[in-house]
């Protein structure tokens, strides 16, 4: 082979290699997931089917919402995530800061079937909510003297020293407290009615725990009857052999939105949009509900009666969902936690 031919051959080989590398990059996405059972369901319901359908590879970084958002901010000039998932409202801040790309609803084949609240600000960069952690009342269906039906029932003397509250350093605990505050006459500008209600409940024998495993311990060992918490945890308790059921409080159901978001400044947004579209499909959402008891946001998701009983399901189920403004919560979190700690220490 002449030197000229050799140079041409090597040049073509290099171009071919570069093209192959670019093609491989075009079929690879980097996302975050939340670890544990959630990540297992994420793989089963969305990631593996997406890879198989699109000849793609999905790289997972295990990172909860706050950590993932911190990484996204730190990587602002050279982001590593293509799609990022949040459960604490970080998409609102991320969109405002230009870290997330606006989404054209027309590019998502499943968007038309989402409930309006789940796609309220796609054009502003806030990705769609694909699952909801519904906060309501978990109760022991065998030992509780009656089934609770409202948030006001937390104050019912019948439950007294069999009531378990969760510390507001826990995200679900915060939402449960804000609902107790609301039915006690407070709002996001005034949490004192909720703190006064907590003082009364503790005086009647209620206890405060910090984590979900402690809730399970109270139900298993200390005859807990009622705990305001997320719908998926009633399922967790039943899997542990405990007779736990979930009910939405009649005054409303605080919702933790789990969103899937398109990151700005990445080269393969078309593939990322396909992943987001897969995530909001009725099949994927039904799978998540079956695996973890998260509420679907796609109106076409079909659930069995058993699964539907554990979640906010259908038009009637989701109309009671409410969302406390994540921006207000974040701005006041430290002050509220301090006031809470003083209240429960008395």
Largest sheet descriptor: 7 strands, mixed
Q: What percent strand? A: 15-25%
CATH domain topology of the largest domain = D-Maltodextrin-Binding Protein, domain 2
| Rg measurement, Å | 23 Å
Poorly predicted ranges: 15-23
CATH arch. level architecture of the largest domain: 3-Layer(aba) Sandwich
The pLDDT mean sits at 93
**Shape field:** globular
Helix content: 40-55%
Domain count: 2
SSE string: HEHEHEHEEHHEHEHEEHHEHHEH
Number of strands: 11
Keywords: Signal
InterPro entries: SBP (IPR006059)
Signal peptide: 1-24
Protein name: ABC transporter substrate-binding protein
Plain-language structure description:
- With 346 residues, the chain is an alpha/beta fold.
- It has two domains: 26-132 and 255-322, D-Maltodextrin-Binding Protein, domain 2, CATH 3.40.190.10; 135-253 and 325-345, Periplasmic binding protein-like II (D-Maltodextrin-Binding Protein, domain 2, 3-Layer(aba) Sandwich).
- Helices cover 45% and strands 16% of the residues.
- It contains 13 helices and eleven strands.
- It has helices at 3-26, 36-54, 65-74, 90-96, 171-183, 192-203, 212-221, 231-239, 269-279, 282-292, 305-308, 314-318, 326-345, and strands at residues 28-33, 57-62, 83-86, 129-140, 164-166, 207-209, 226-230, 244-247, 253-262, 295-296, 321-322.
- The strands form three sheets. Strands 3, 4, 7, 8, 9, 10 and 11 form a seven-stranded mixed β-sheet that branches. Strands 1-2 form a two-stranded parallel ribbon. The protein has a two-stranded parallel ribbon with strand order 5-6.
- Strand 1 (28-33), helix 2 (36-54) and strand 2 (57-62) form a beta-alpha-beta unit.
- Helix 2 crosses helix 9, helix 5 crosses helix 6 and helix 6 (192-203) runs parallel beside helix 13.
- The radius of gyration is 23 Å and the shape is globular.
- The model is unreliable at 15-23 (pLDDT under 50).
- Keywords: Signal.
- InterPro entries: SBP (IPR006059).
- Residues 1-24 form the signal peptide.
- This is ABC transporter substrate-binding protein.
- One of its GO terms (molecular function) is thiamine binding.
